[in-house]
Write a structure and sequence with these properties.
five-stranded parallel sheet; about 375 residues; alpha/beta; binds flavin-adenine dinucleotide; about 20% strand; 10 helices; seven-stranded mixed sheet; Rossmann fold; binds uridine-5'-diphosphate
């Protein structure tokens, strides 16, 4: 009998598995997909690591997490600086002096602040939704050109029906700084994300192509405890109802070009273009290959059984999740962790932090 059966080989499962093995416990990892790594998995194409489940940029302010991942891989010095394309007009992201100067022809931070202050008067009192939050942060011009269309296609609903916190992920700066993140540490693993997962899972027994919820009987009794990182509602066979997710569809093309768009991430912020971003993967690793791979990312309605990409954190889903969390707390032999089991819009560093904390509690 194993000490732990780990369901899912994404970052949560892989970090927990690594820590458990290090602590002398026996572990078995099972994974529904044919490949390990969850959403950070990449496929190498002609020397270019193609991010199969969406572009991933590692960024963190947790020193311990940064040191942890650096034990396994070296990180390059990539800094994410996406460009927004609104009907062919290009703007730097996140919202900073370069964006403001291009949009309004202003020069100083004071002039930018005055423009935003003038446009912000449209909102009275505490912002109640994403639209109000966005206008109060950056004014109506940026909201209209760079936020509204992108957000509504990304989430498939109006900005007035979305929570304010989603837009607070993006920095707003009165300096000429195009770094998309405020975090202290940032980069892409040299040689790609698979190296990180492979190092974490080194020496650990992994079975791919196995869906725990479909063959639970077979695995029941195989381990003293289960670490479950799949969707929490699926674990309980949706008995309280289904949590909603936002889906994605990726269209990848090989182009006989050295440099297609000059940047790893270009956001298409108008509503009429059906995709949200175009990723040119080679730029994450400063690739010089004679060809390039680009991926269009299309937001999609999600149906049960499809890959679940983003939790939809509205009131209905949060309430339902709370009820599932109560059921989960009663499962004494099962630990629920990660983005799907906790129904949380977690970044990679938060997942690692949470897996390490969980391992720390569990493996004393
Ligand atoms: P996952 O990676 O989803 O792993 C869960 C694993 O469990 C999957 O492999 C799944 O197949 C498996 N599984 C599920 N159910 C079962 C089952 N029943 N049986 C067996 N296996 C099962 N974070 C960042 O920090 N920076 C970024 O730039 C970034 N970009 C992102 C872009 C996109 C499009 C998305 C969707 C997410 C992004 N993230 C980013 C978040 C990042 O992907 C997650 O924080 C992290 O990968 C989550 O790890 P996890 O182990 O919790 O979940
Ligand atoms: N967003 C936007 N315009 C952009 C980029 C982002 O309006 O050009 C908004 C959008 O609502 C998105 C949120 O900011 O959901 C968070 O963006 P982030 O890049 O953090 O999203 P992720 O990479 O997690 O998809």
């Amino acid at each position: 009998m194993y000490d732990y059966l780990i369901v899912g080989s994404g970052l949560f499962g892989a970090v927990f598995a690594h820590e458990a093995k290090k602590a002398g416990r026996s572990v078995l990892v099972i994974e529904r997909r044919e490949n390990v790594g969850g959403n950070i998995y990449c496929e190498e194409m002609e020397g270019i690591n193609v991010h199969k489940y969406g572009a991933h940029i590692f960024h963190t302010s947790y020193k311990d997490v940064w040191e942890y991942v650096n034990q396994f891989v070296e990180f390059n010095n990539y800094v994410n600086s996406p460009v927004a394309n609104y009907k062919g007009e290009l703007y730097n992201l996140p919202f900073n002096m370069n964006t403001f100067a291009k949009l309004w022809g202003i020069v100083t931070p004071d002039e930018a602040a005055a423009k935003i202050a003038e446009q912000r008067t449209a909102i009275k009192g505490e912002p109640q939704n994403l639209e109000e939050q966005a206008i109060s942060l950056v004014g109506t011009d940026i909201y209209t050109k760079l936020i509204k269309g992108y957000t509504e296609k990304q989430w498939g609903r109006s900005c007035t029906e979305l929570p304010a916190f989603i837009i607070k992920r993006l920095p707003v700066r009165y300096t000429f700084d195009n770094n998309y993140f405020n975090d202290r540490y940032q980069g892409i693993p040299v040689g790609g994300y698979n190296k990180l997962i492979d190092a974490l899972l080194d020496g650990i027994e992994v079975r791919t192509g196995v869906d725990y919820n479909e063959c639970r009987a077979e695995y029941e009794g195989m381990a003293k405890k289960v670490v479950y990182t799949g969707p929490v509602d699926a674990y309980f066979d949706y008995k309280l109802g289904q949590l909603e997710y936002r889906g994605l569809r990726f269209e990848t093309e090989r182009l006989e070009e050295v440099n297609h768009q000059g940047v790893a991430v270009m956001n298409y912020t108008e509503r009429e273009v059906p995709y949200t971003r175009v990723i040119e993967h080679k730029h994450f690793e400063f690739g010089t290959q004679p060809v390039t791979y680009v991926t269009k990312e299309y937001p999609a309605d999600w149906q049960p059984g499809e890959e679940a990409y983003y939790p939809v954190n509205n009131e209905r889903n949060q309430n339902l999740y709370q009820q599932y969390a109560e059921l989960a707390a009663k499962e004494e032999k099962v630990i629920f962790g990660g983005r799907l089991a906790e129904y949380k819009y977690y970044d990679m560093d938060d997942v690692i932090k949470s897996a390490l904390a969980c391992a720390g509690r569990e493996l004393q």
